[in-house]
Every structure is written in C-alpha cells, then in structure tokens.
Design brief:
3 helices, binds copper (II) ion, 3-stranded mixed beta sheet
Length: 147
C-alpha cells in the first residue's frame, strides 16, 4: 500500500510539472484614466490571471474602471461603443457580435476594488482590451500579445 501511495504521489507530481503555471499580472487603473500596462504578453494554452485594480479616489459613479478583453481580429472601437451604451448591464454589451468578440471581462470597479480576470488564450494574436466606462476607451486600451 505504501508503494502504491508513493507511486500515485509521483504521478501526481509529474502531471503538475507539465502544466505551465499561470501568467499572473496586475494592471492598475487610476483617476487620470490610465492603465499601468498597455502591453501584456501571453502564450497560447497558458492560463492568464490578470488582476485589475482601481487605485483612484474619485467615486465609482463618475469614475469606475474595468477591463474587457477581445478576441484577435475584433473591432475594439465598435465593441467599446456598444458596451458604453449598456448601462443597465454594467457596461458590457450583450448583442450577438459583442458576445462573440468578448473573451473575458471584469465588472466595473470603484476606488480600492480589484478583480481577477482568468482566461486561457486558445490562439495566437493580439487580444485588445479596454475600459468600457463611457468616454474611457480613447485613453484606456491596450493589447495582450499572445504567441
Ligand atoms: Cu475606465
């Protein structure tokens, strides 16, 4: 029995060693409508854990931030415009085209709040991201380059 347990433990360790650890990164957003990162690197098939954190002080109603990540080849200006109009859905558009384009997103965050976005890119390409609060897109956007 002891041998079997050891064998199982060894197998479990081997299986874990093969899965690449997730890429963890923190991106902050401030009252000047700036993300701390405009470019993030990712790898196909490797999980990403992106912590988005609002480090400003202006109340949520007038200055909240989030992160919406799009599939490669999507149209950020158009999707962001639709999201900015979706006030009753926390500024996440729900039409078919937007749903198909959005890979992952965080809710709108107020000062001091943070959220971890988890997703695993399945194909290489440029995953554009932006803040969908009305008027923030022009300053708050960036790209996850997945190779
Ligand atoms: Cu914002």
């Amino acid at each position: 029995m002891k041998k079997l347990t050891t064998l199982l433990l060894l197998l479990a360790c081997a299986a874990t060693a093969h899965a690449a650890p997730p890429i963890k990164i923190e991106v902050t957003a401030n009252d000047q409508m700036r993300y701390s990162s405009k470019k993030i690197e990712g790898k196909v098939g490797v999980a990403m854990e992106i912590t988005i954190k609002h480090i400003g002080k202006i109340p949520k109603a007038s200055m909240s931030h989030n992160m919406v990540i799009l599939k490669p080849g999507s149209m950020p200006p158009m999707i962001s415009m639709k999201c900015a109009q979706a006030k009753d859905n926390n500024y996440i558009a729900t039409d078919a085209e937007s749903k198909a384009a959005i890979v992952a997103y965080s809710p709108q965050l107020g000062p001091g709040e943070s959220h971890v976005i988890k997703f695993t890119p399945k194909e290489a390409g440029d995953y554009k991201y932006f803040c969908s609060f009305p008027g923030h897109f022009s300053e708050m956007h960036g790209v996850i380059v997945v190779k």
